[in-house]
Design goal:
Helices cover about 35% and strands about 20% of the residues. By secondary structure, it is α/β, with parallel strands linked by helices. Strand 15 (about 415-425) and strand 16 (about 430-440) form a beta hairpin. Helix 1 packs across helix 2 and helix 8 crosses helix 13 (about 470-490). The longest helix is centred in the middle third of the chain and has 26 residues, at about 255-280. The protein is globular, with a radius of gyration of 25 Å. The two termini are about 35 Å apart. Its EC number is 1.1.1.49. Keywords: Carbohydrate metabolism, Glucose metabolism, NADP, Oxidoreductase. This is Glucose-6-phosphate 1-dehydrogenase.
């Protein structure tokens, strides 16, 4: 008798609306709607929302872009993007595509044309009357950072940022703006961007989006910490030896040479993604799970990380740049050979850092951070390594396969949690080995995780800014990063160490942690 393999059950649809709440009618205005971000991410996400998580009838999407397109031409372009970039198992049928297309409208203008914003205001008022959008607007800036200040100023001049006293339902209408990273290039430019925003929008209207915060597994860091009583008593310097955070990317820079040459790995990944994960991992318990309480604790955590002195930067940071190597069996070129990169470039594609948090919970516990391009695998993980047992009863030759307890939070790609514990190998001999206890989010719950952009856009519609970044949070993060990048300016170019593509970075990164008697926990 042959045993049939179990049929894999499709994942259940998740619920995107919190506690059954539904969003108000609104118009989402996408600046730069013909660009890459809008085509690859925003339009497929909005199409999925309207189909799988029904939105109010009064919901419209307005494109604001340079190309001279009619509504029909824009709808055709948008549907092409939706069909190309939506996952195969999420495609819309013909009827659903046409229903989505009828929600799409176009306003042609350059970002600098004052009259274009007047036409946008007229179109939005028309949609309020004809489509029932109720005077509510979300302005999504899917645009290059250098264009943001001008767009923000023009929105203010056109009166589009104002929240009106009432709409046709007798409720106060609202206006919100979503800003994509990078939020400035350094502390000074971030403060200027915040001032530009503050002149036109109130802080509660501003939604600074980092798609990492929309990942279900990032949010589950808080649930894991604060919903499990067995870990909170151990989550401190008394029991934890050190913490590692890695954001590894196996790809190179692709077509992003112009952006990457100006930003490098520390601004591209560390200042935003890694700092957000660090905050959730190390912050204190908020007084409530609401936007201000959570963000208050994140800011406190960042302020407890002192800026590094030039001497500390030399000792606690490592920069690297990938050279030609082999990735997945294919020969790949080095960073300086990438199209658009200067042959004399000293831009870092790899960063390793050691940071300390100066508070009662984390005093003297090092946080080791790594990120890089052209590493052996794509992975984002947080590893909490606990201290060794105070006295090991077994002989050294009986514990060769044993490492200290490690708790790993896998954010991507195989989302889950694993705990490494010591166990005896079966047999008469007293041999110990480390084994993993763990689970996968998809198999444990059988529920499809929402896309990061889907969750964040839905939260903005509901007016929930918990997963978005506040003004003082941005500036506190930049103070730390600036202390590092300013010190790097005074260091020799020779301190940007080469590493071969397909490896875990320069050997100096190994030395950084080995000098402390520790080793990196590389994702498998």
């Amino acid at each position: 008798m042959t045993q049939q393999a179990p049929v894999e059950q499709p994942l259940k649809q998740h619920s995107i609306w919190q506690d059954g709440r539904k969003p108000d009618p609104c118009a989402v205005v996408i600046f730069g709607a013909t660009g890459d971000l809008a085509q690859r991410k925003l339009l497929p996400t909005l199409a999925h929302l309207t189909h799988d998580h029904p939105l109010p009838q009064g919901f419209c999407i307005v494109a604001f872009a340079r190309r001279p397109l009619s509504d029909e031409q824009w709808r055709e372009m948008a549907l092409n993007a939706v069909n190309q970039y939506m996952p195969e198992d999420d495609k819309l049928d013909h009827e659903a595509q046409q229903a989505f297309a009828q929600r799409l409208f176009y306003c042609q203008s350059t970002f600098e044309d004052k009259d274009g914003y007047a036409r946008l205001a007229q179109l939005l008022e028309k949609l309020d009357r004809e489509q029932g959008t109720g005077g509510n607007r979300i302005f999504y800036l899917a645009t290059p950072p250098e264009t943001d200040p001008g767009i923000i100023a023009h929105l203010g001049e056109a009166g589009l940022s104002r929240e009106h006293n009432s709409n046709h339902n007798g409720h106060k209408s609202w206006a919100r703006i979503i800003i994509e990273k990078p939020f400035g290039h350094d502390l000074s430019s971030a403060q200027k961007l915040n001032r530009d925003l503050g002149r036109v929008f109130k802080e509660q209207q501003i939604y600074r989006i980092d798609h990492y915060m929309g990942k279900e597994t990032v949010q589950n860091i808080l649930a894991f910490r604060f919903a499990n009583g067995i870990f909170e008593p151990l989550w401190n310097r008394n029991y934890i030896d050190h913490v590692q955070i890695v954001v590894a990317e196996s790809l190179g820079i692709g077509t992003r040479a112009e952006f990457y040459e100006g930003e490098g790995a520390i601004r591209d990944i560390v200042q935003n993604h890694i700092m957000q994960v660090l905050c959730l991992t190390a912050m204190e318990t908020p007084v409530a799970f609401d936007a201000e309480a959570v963000r208050d604790e994140k800011v406190k955590l960042l302020r407890a990380i002192p800026p590094l002195t030039p001497e500390e930067v030399a000792q606690q940071t490592v920069r690297g740049q990938y050279t030609a190597g082999v990735e997945d069996g294919q020969t790949v070129k080095g960073y300086k050979q990438e199209e658009g990169v200067s042959p004399q470039s000293t831009t870092e594609t790899f960063v390793a850092l050691k940071l300390f948090i100066e508070n009662w919970r984390w005093e003297d516990v090092p946080f080791y951070i790594r990120t890089g391009k052209r590493l052996p695998t794509r992975s984002t993980e947080v590893t909490i390594q606990f201290k060794r047992v105070p006295h090991l009863l077994y002989k050294p030759d009986e514990t060769r396969g044993l490492v200290p307890n490690r708790l790993t939070l896998r954010i991507q790609p195989d989302e889950g949690i694993s705990l490494k514990i010591g166990a005896k190998v079966p047999g008469a001999e007293r041999n110990l080995r480390s084994v993993d206890m763990g689970f996968s989010y998809s198999s444990a719950f059988g529920i499809q995780s929402p896309d990061a952009y889907e969750r964040l856009i839905a939260d903005c519609m509901l007016g929930d800014s918990t997963l978005f970044i506040r003004r003082d949070e941005i500036e506190a993060s930049w103070r730390i990063i600036d202390s590092i990048t300013n010190a790097w300016k005074g260091m020799s170019d020779d301190t940007v160490y080469p590493y071969q593509a397909g490896t875990w970075g320069p050997k100096q990164a190994e030395t950084l942690i080995e000098n402390d008697g520790r080793d990196w926990d590389n994702p498998s």
